[in-house]
Sequence to fold (877 residues):
Amino acid sequence: MTESATAPGSFSFVLSGSASDSPTAEQTDSVDAVSMVGICKSFGSLVALHGADFQLRRGEIHALLGENGAGKSTLMNILYGLEERDQGEVRIDGVPVSFSTPQDAVVKGLGMVHQHFKLVPRLTVIENVLLGDRRSRGFRLPDLAVAAKELEELADSYGLPISATDQVSGLSVGEQQRVEILRSLYFGAKTLILDEPTASLTPLEVNQLLDKLRGLADTGTSIIIITHHLDEVMESADRVTVLRSGLNVRTTAAAETNQVELAKLMVGRDVGILTQKNAIRGEPLGEFFEQDNSPVLRLYEVAASSHSPLEAAAGDAKRGLFDVNLEVRSGEIVAIAGVEGNGQNELEDVLSGFLQVEQGEFSIDEKDCRTYLPSELLKLGLGYIPSDRYRRGLIGDLSVAANVSYDRISEYPIGTRFKVNSKEMMRRGGQAVEEFSIAVGDAGDLAGTLSGGNAQRVVIARALAKELRLLVAAQPTRGLDVGAIEFIWGLLDKQRSQGLATLLITTDLDEVMALADRVYVMYRGRLTEVPADRDLIGLAMGGSISEVGHSIDA
Amino acid sequence: MDWSSVFGGAALIPLLNAAIRLAIPTGLAAVGESFCQRAGVLNLSLEGMMLSGALTSYLGAYYSGSLWVGVPAGIGGGLLVGVLMALFTLQFKTEQVINGIVLVLLAQAGTSFTFEKLFGDLTLTGRFEPMGNWKIPGLASIPGVGTVLFDQSPLVYLSVVLIWGIWYLLNRTTFGLAVRAVGDKPAAADAAGISVYRTRWLAILISGAMAGLGGVVLVIGQLGMFMQNVTAGRGWVAIALVIFGRWRPLRVMAGALLFGLTDAIQLRIQAASGGIESDVPFELFQAMPYLVTIAVVVFASARARKSGEPEALGRPFFKGAQI
Fold:
C-alpha cells in the first residue's frame, strides 16, 4: 500500500477556527490531531469503506455515529493499526503515518478502549498495565509495588483514582473501563478511541464517564467515541461524524443538530421509533384481563444458581437468583432491566429449561415446570429468543430454512420422526425470509453467514412460528442497528396486542421505556418492581434503591 | 511385620531422603506442566514426554558411557514430544486432549519398539550403576536435615534449582506475566502486543524439557536401566498434581513430595512385609501412591474446582476472537 495514495478530489481543508478552544502551542493549533482522508477498505467482495474522511481536532470529543456495518469500527481499526487500509491517507498531528500493529499506534500517542475490555481478569491492575508496556521489555518484571504507586499517582492526577494492586476480576465494569483508559494514558496517549464505551454501564456510571472524558478533553486529550446512542452524543460530544455505508454523510457541531436529524442521517430515512418514541407503548388490553386473569408465567420465591452444589458449599461468591417473584399475564410486556451479570443469565436459563430451580415454584399456565427440559417448555408454548443468538439461537452450518424450523423438525408437516420434508421446510424458510425481511439470497443459504440483525430475525422467526403462550425475549436488540430495532420492537408490540405474554430481559433502558407495561430491575440476583421511570430504574440498576419494591408493595 | 523399620527413629531419615528422591521425576514433570497449563495449553502428552526422555537419556548414557551425556539427551527426548505437541496444538490447532493422548500412545509404543529392536531382551546386561550422591560439604553433616536434604544425587540439586526457576520465570519475569495473560485471556494478551502463538510454543517446550529431565532422573539417577513403560504413569500423576496444586508451581511440587513420600513408605512396607515372598501381593503396595493421589486430588477438586484454573485452558486461540 502506498503512503501517498489520496482520494480523488477530496483533500481536506485545514481547520483554522479552532484556535480559541485549544490551549496547546500555536503551531499545532491549526493541525488536526487525527486526519483521515479518502480511506478505502474492502474485505473480499464487501466494500466496508469507500473514501471515508475523518478529522479530529485537538482537545475535542468527537462522536462517530453509524449503524452496524456503516464502517465506523473498520475506520477506527485502521486508525489504530488493527487493519490496514487499501487506499487513503492517515495523518497524526499532520504527519503521515502507516500502522501495521496497534503497538505502532500506541507509540504515536493513540489509545483504544475496546467495547469488550482487553484486560486479563486474573491479573492485578498494575500487571495488566505492565503487560502491554513496550518500554519495560526487560526480562525481569519491575518492582510491582513501586510501579503500582506510580500508576496510582498518575491516576489521581487525571482524577481517575484506582487501586493498582487489586485484581481486575473484582472490579466493576466502570472501574475496568477506567483501568483501560488509564492504561492508554500511562502509555502516553494523546488521542483516545472509545468503542461503545457506555454499552455496559449503569446510567449513573455513564454520567460519571462522560464527566471524566470532558475533564480529559479540557486538558488537551482528544477523544473519539464510537457509539449509536444518540442522547449521549448530544450530551457529551463537541462534534459528530455520521457514517453510512462506508462514507461519511456529515460532520457537524453537536450543538447544530438534534437526535431526530442524526437518526435520519444514520439510517437514510425517517425513523419512527425516535420521532414518536412512546407511541409504540400501547395500552394493555383490558379484554384479556377480563377474560383470563391468571398469570401465564409465575415464579414464586425462586432460587437458582449456576454453581455446582460443591462450589456453593465451599462458599464461593454467590451467583444466581434469590427469592425471585414474578408474574406475567396475557397481553403485557414485563421488562427485566438491570446491568449485565446480575442474574439475568440465570433467569433466562431457568425460564428456558437450562437451569433447574433449587427452591420455589415455576409454572406456566399453572403447570409445574420445575423439572421441564427445554424441549418440553417449547411444547408448552414457550417462545424463546436467547441473549446469545449465535451460540444458542443459530446453527451456523445449517441453512436459514433449517434454522427457522429445527425445533419442530419432527412435527407434521415439516417432518416425521424419521424423515424431514425438506420441501416444506424450504417453503416455510422462504416465507420467513419474506415476512421478517431477512437479507439473504435464498432460504437455503447458511445461517452462519448472516449479520447480527439478520441472524436475530431468523431467531425471532423461529420463536414466533408457532402458537405461543409466553415469549421470553432476552436482549432481543443488543448490538443491532436502528432499523432492525425498529422492526423487532414493532413485532413485540404486535404480539402483545394479540394477547401474548412477554418477558423482556434487557439492559437497554430505551427498550424498557419503549415497550414495557411493567418494569422490574434485577440487582444481585433479586428482582425489585420499579415504576416505569427512567431515573428510578437507573438508580435501582446501581442497587441504590432496592427498597422501592417494598414500599410499593406496602 | 516390623513397623519400626518403616517409620522408626533410625528409619525416618532415610525415608525422608528417599521421599525427596522419589518425588523429583514426577515433580519436574508436574511443575513444567503447571507452567504449560498457565499458558492455556492442556498438555496431556506429559507421560509420553517422560518416557521419551527416559529412553533417550538411557541411550545417551549407554552408548557414550557417560551418565552426564544422558542428561541433555533425555531433555532432548522430552523436547521432541514437545515439538510434536506444539505443532499439532498450535500449528494445526487440533484438539489438545486428543493430541496429548495420541502422543502418549506413540511414545509408549515407540520407546518399547526402539528399545526391543536395539537390545532385544538384554535388559539386565544393559544395566548400569545410577549416578551416585554428592554430599554437600558442611551442610550434609548437619544431623538429620543434612542427610535428608544434602546427601542427594546432583540431578536432584539441579532439579530443585530448575523448579524454583520455573516459579521465578512465571511470577517475576515479563515472560511469565505474558504466560499468565495468554492462559487466562489470550485476546487481551494479543491486544497488548504479545504473541499468543510464540508464548504457547515456548511454554510447551519448557514443559517438554522438564518432563524429559524427569525421565532422566528416573533412569540415570535412580534405576540405571530402561524398560517398557518405565515411567509407570508418573506423567498422569503429574497432571493430577497440577490440579492439586491449583496451577501454582511450588504447591504442585508440594503435592509431588507427598507422592514421593507415599512411594518411599510403600517401598519400605513392601520390604518389611517380605517382598515377593509376602502373602500380601506387592502390587497392592505399589498402587498406594496412585491411590493417595486420587484421594488427594478428588478432595482438592471438591473444594473449588475452578479456582486457579486458567480461563483459556485447553482452548485454541484464533486471532480476532473475543475470548
Notes: The first strand of chain B starts at residue 134 and ends at 135. Chain B has a mean pLDDT of 90. Chain B touches chain A at residues 172-178, 180-181, 184-185, 187-189, 191-194, 302-307, 310-311, 322 (CB under 8 Å).
